[in-house]
Design a protein that fits this description.
- With about 625 residues, the chain is α/β, with parallel strands linked by helices.
- It has 22 helices and 12 strands.
- The strands form 3 sheets. A 6-stranded mixed β-sheet has the order 8-9-10-5-11-12, with helices on both faces. Strands 4-3-6-7 form a 4-stranded antiparallel β-sheet, with helices on one face.
- A hairpin with a 2-residue loop joins strand 11 and strand 12.
- The radius of gyration is 36 Å and the shape is elongated.
Length: about 625
């Protein structure tokens, strides 16, 4: 058969273009002010990072929106010219000349709108898309760097909500700055500038719009933020409840609990709906109050300008100009004020994403010892470990010296610390005290990502994804040969199964491997471990899901595959570890017995008791099925 990806294939050329998503982790870094309150200054950092694109897009916006400001000036100028003609102070030719010049200026301003709009949108789109990709990418990198204990404490549904919903809201926050805040601020400043240039007294009246809108925004700001925070928490809870429902779908149907789950999810949905109504209601109060205020100010402007015109302070055309400018300023300031709900949602989402980005329970590999290869010597020196928040130690005073190539079996009752030992070897957990050494080097000083390239783990629960058998076995491998794949398939006792499938090793197995039996799924995970040819191999009760016949064949395969590599086996059926070099018996986190199978059976201690109980349970199960 053909090689899929030969080990000798040519490396990627250095000149070949590779798109790299920028690292935006620092955007979420928090600092404390003098009062001890934490702030991340997201806006300031993102503006500094994108200063030049923002600068050029702002200049282009001035050109793009020029017709909006020229129209009132042109209209005012034409009305004044016509008024002078009616009063006999200006000839018809002069009026037509003014109209022609004003029309030409406006035509040029309108014509340039198309190219400037396209150019600005290109700059803005590239900036926003790049920033959005950077934010999502840095969240993914952070999630991958978090410790296993943190990932278990933070429910999957909440993490999904933070990534899918809150990162989008954080993107919207920056988009709002670029697309709405900056344009409206520029527009308001230019409108005020024109008013100041034409008449300082009218400009002072214009400026009262700003403090009035700021006051009403501050009045609603805290309430909106609180409402959005509650909505976010309710949404995360609903997402988590939905994830749990999907995970439990088989059990739910098997026990006829569909209505119970529907009721539970409906309660979460109603919680989100209730929080959403509160947000909408508060936003409605804010929006209507802002609208009434600004329209009252607009009416006041008409009266104010009319009075000035009566006393000869401004012309009739200026009434139209100032009213138009005031309406524009009011709309700009009102638009900024109406962004408050969007900003409230954005800042709350930013706070949510920052919970992940500022988590300190991370696995840091930068600057640590490189691990190009390992022999497989594993040493525990007086290791103690307990989980965060727990009172009792899961592992206590544990010491062992394992030479490369040894096979160590670990047995004991549930909760005795067997899986915790395996997680300490993998580097998922760090000892509270004591050390774990790999080839004589402290594991906590090694680059764990590189170290794990040389170990393979077969967990108790098979973890598969939607795809083919090939894709699941070769997950993460960029280069492998067909011979290596076939060897892993044979060692995992998958050959006969694959022969019966319509597309062989390229058969799709469904989501989580749902088209396969438990034993078949576990053998695929075993093949995934073996194809990597690891120096250290860990089986965490990996054969517990297999029937007796499959287990026999897999045990034979494992026996041949563990030669020349360090192997740790957490055993479910004690008869399967007879060939281990040493057996460790764990009890309440401590190793109470150690030796070969024959030595421990002859000793008639704790292992003998466990073995007798195991045999008794197996016999009772066989009799019950007979």
């Amino acid at each position: 058969m053909k090689t899929i990806q030969e080990k000798g294939e040519k490396p990627r050329s250095k000149r070949e273009r590779i798109d790299v998503i920028p690292d935006y982790d620092y955007l979420f870094a928090e600092t404390e002010n003098k009062k001890g309150k934490k702030k991340n200054k997201f806006f300031g950092k993102i503006v500094k990072m994108n200063f030049w694109p923002l600068f050029f897009s702002s200049l282009l916006y001035v050109l793009q929106a020029a017709p909006l400001w020229l129209m009132p000036l042109v209209t005012s100028d034409i009305i004044d010219a016509v008024a002078l003609f009616v009063s006999g102070e200006l000839a018809a030719a002069e009026v037509l000349k003014k109209v022609g010049i004003d029309s030409a200026i406006l035509a040029v301003a309108l014509a340039q709108n198309v190219p400037t709009t396209v150019c600005r949108n290109t700059i803005v789109s590239k900036m926003l898309r790049t920033t959005s990709a950077g934010i999502k990418s840095c969240v993914v990198r952070k999630l991958q760097s978090l410790s296993i204990t943190y990932a278990k404490d933070m429910e999957t549904g909440r993490i999904q909500s933070k990534f899918l919903k809150d990162t989008d809201a954080a993107d919207t926050l920056f988009s709002t700055l670029v697309q709405s805040i900056i344009p409206n601020v520029i527009s308001a400043l230019i409108a005020v500038g024109i008013a100041v240039f034409k008449n300082g007294i009218v400009a002072l009246f214009f400026l009262c719009v700003i403090p009035c809108n700021v006051a009403i925004s501050r009045l609603f700001n805290k309430r909106l933020r609180a409402r959005y925070r509650d909505l976010r928490l309710q949404t995360e809870g609903m997402s988590n409840r939905l994830s749990a429902m999907l995970e439990m779908l088989t059990i739910t149907k098997a026990h006829g609990l569909e209505q119970t789950e529907i009721d539970a999810v409906n309660r979460a949905i109603l919680g989100v709906a209730g929080s959403g109504v509160k947000v909408d209601k508060t936003s409605a109060y804010f929006g209507s109050s802002s609208w009434v205020l600004n329209n009252m100010l607009s009416c006041g402007c008409v009266v104010f300008c009319a009075v000035l015109a009566v006393f000869g302070k401004i012309s009739v055309g200026d009434i139209v100009l100032y009213q138009s400018m005031f309406v524009s300023i009011t709309s700009y300031v009102s638009a900024l004020a109406n962004l408050l709900p969007t900003l409230g949602a954005g800042f709350e989402a930013l706070s949510s994403v920052s919970e992940i980005m500022n988590a300190t329970d991370v696995e840091m590999n930068i600057g640590k010892r490189s691990v190009p290869s390992i022999r497989g010597d594993v040493v525990f020196q007086n290791v103690y470990y307990k989980y965060p928040g727990a009172e009792e130690y899961t592992v206590k005073n544990f010491s062992i010296d394992v030479k490369a190539g040894e096979c160590i079996a670990v047995v004991g009752s549930s909760g005795s610390g067997k899986s915790t030992l395996m997680n300490l070897i993998i580097g998922f957990l760090k000892p509270v005290s004591g050390r774990v050494l790999i080839d004589g080097k402290p594991l906590d000083e090694c680059n764990l990502s590189e170290y794990r390239h040389h170990i393979s783990v077969v967990p108790q629960n098979s973890i598969l994804f939607a795809g083919t058998i090939r894709e699941n076995i070769t997950y993460g491998l960029s280069r492998y040969t067909e011979e290596e794949l076939q060897k892993a398939v044979e060692l995992a006792d998958l050959t006969d199964l694959i022969k019966t499938l319509p597309h062989g090793v390229d058969t799709d197995i469904g989501e989580h491997g749902d088209k396969l039996s438990g034993g078949q799924k576990q053998r695929i995970t075993i093949a995934r471990a073996l194809i990597r040819n690891p120096a250290v191999l860990i089986f965490d009760e990996a054969t517990s899901a297999l029937d007796n016949i499959s287990e026999y064949h897999v045990q034979k395969a494992i026996s041949s595959s563990i030669k020349g590599r360090t192997t740790f086996i957490v055993a479910h059926r004690l008869s399967t570890i007879r060939g281990a070099d040493r057996i460790l018996v764990m009890e309440r986190g401590e190793c109470v017995e150690a030796g070969t199978y024959e030595e421990l059976m002859a000793k008639k201690g704790r292992f003998y008791e466990l073995k007798s109980l195991n045999d008794m349970n197996s016999k009772m199960a066989e009799e019950a099925l007979a």
